[in-house]
Amino acid sequence: MNLLKLLNIRKFTNIHKIALITFFSSLYLYGHVGTLYLQARSLSLFQVSSIWSIIVATIFLAEVPTGVIADKIGRKKSIIIALLLQLIGEVWYIFADTYLVFVVIAIIAGVGFSFASGCIEALIYDTLPKDKREDEMKKAMGAKGAAYYLAFFAAPLLGSLLVPVFTLERFLTTVFLTACSVFIALLLAFTLKEPKKEYEHEEESPIIILKHGIQHIRGNNFLLWLTAISVFTATFSGTLGSLFQPYFVHFNLTAMNMGIASAIGALLAVGLQKNIFMIEQWLGKRTTLIASTILPGIGFLFMAAAPTPIIAFVAFLFTYGTAEIKNPLISSYQNGVIPEKIRATVLSLINLFVSLYGAVVGLTMGWFANQHTTYPFILAGILIIFFATIFRVDKIATKQSQAMSS
Domain range spanning residue 87? Predict the structure, then answer.
């Protein structure tokens, strides 16, 4: 805790602390070669994809219970639990050597992610002053997203220095250092402040809280529409992070190239996420939501059609950079129509559907990857563009005005 005192971390706001926690918990120094490591452990690309799908499926099963728990015990405690589980998974990853062990670690990770998914957004939103929350939420989520991608910028660069060529010993070194980074995030979580005012309501059972959450989603057409967009235009960023590695190998690009590409792509994503609020003010809600939803789909198709290593490299940068830029916008719109006392539960319900869809499509993409490295990107691009068209993302202004008037 002396380090925290030295940094005077307690004077930071929850928004600053969440950004720091996001950075240190996302600093995966081995991420850019993680798939190659699993292949070295004799896992097929389908099994590698199944690891991520198991994480997502676990999130699906644990999302609602953990969201209810977050609304009962508070956001801070839930975030601490999430980081503790993440730390346990990283430490165990050092010793993992069979597919079954990786599956168990994936389950632990899924439970941890489900604890964090709804309550982090809820804590951020409840921390903000009630006036101008929509605008402030976009800025806060943009800062969180920027911290996430800043970590993904730094991690592959540092990881490339540690693993210029792939060896088991160097890989395990990066896993250990990643565990140390998660430990720092855990320490930071203990300094968060619970927004006490948000819990000034009568005690209710978890079943009632869950029931209210389901009723609220079903009874709000605008929220249902946003949920549909979140689910069906998901960009499978986790699967992209796994499958781009054999994709680069297909083009004879090295581990160092993978690290550099991950770093530059993350830097691009940082700039877009950090400034998405300003971009929306400049282009308007309609154009910004259309572009932020469609561009990742175009990027996936661009990757699939790339004829040369250089174009493949650029296509990956474009896809990675634009993959999650719609998230701060969607998050702001969602939180604006969710009651405070069930916010974590409702957000968890939404993430539940996103997780289920991601698990099914992620497995399908893994199966396609075993056939050819570009097939999963064709599938992802078609799905994103198709559903963005079906759900009319261009109707954001109309839908939001109807929600406000009802």
Answer: 12-193+204-405
